[in-house]
Design a protein that fits this description.
By secondary structure, the protein is of the alpha+beta class. The chain has 3 helices and 4 strands; from the N terminus they run H-E-E-E-H-H-E. A 4-stranded mixed sheet has the order 3-2-1-4. Strand 2 and strand 3 form a beta hairpin.
């Protein structure tokens, strides 16, 4: 909601600078290693760290770590930016962002203007 967004922006501004307060959501992905190679399409689960894994992608509010959106169970071979494309935030950005608002992400994610 709008009040939660405002609190998140104030938190970001208080810890960084005024110009960065438009970034009020954060995203990152993490692998969960599997015990062994899956029997069905196992090669698709082989990740960049030479493990068989599933990926979880989480979008949060940085001021309270509340989860806003997530994707779980994606094969580990998929890149973070591809997995992010499956989130509601990526598929419906107008539902989440207004003018001059954005998502904090590392360099693994594609920038869009």
């Amino acid at each position: 909601d709008q009040e939660e967004r405002k609190r998140s922006q104030q938190w970001v501004e208080g810890r960084t600078c005024r110009e960065w307060h438009g970034g009020f959501l954060c995203v990152d992905g993490t692998p969960f290693n599997l015990f062994q190679k899956p029997g069905w399409h196992g090669e698709g689960f082989f990740d960049k760290n030479s493990n068989y894994s599933l990926t979880a992608q989480v979008v949060i509010l940085p001021h309270n770590l509340r989860i806003v959106d997530y994707v779980i169970g994606v094969p580990g071979s998929l890149h973070d930016s591809n997995v992010f494309g499956q989130t509601r935030v990526a598929q419906n950005p107008d539902d989440f962002f207004g003018v001059n608002q954005w998502l904090w992400a590392d360099s693994a994610y594609v920038s869009q203007v």
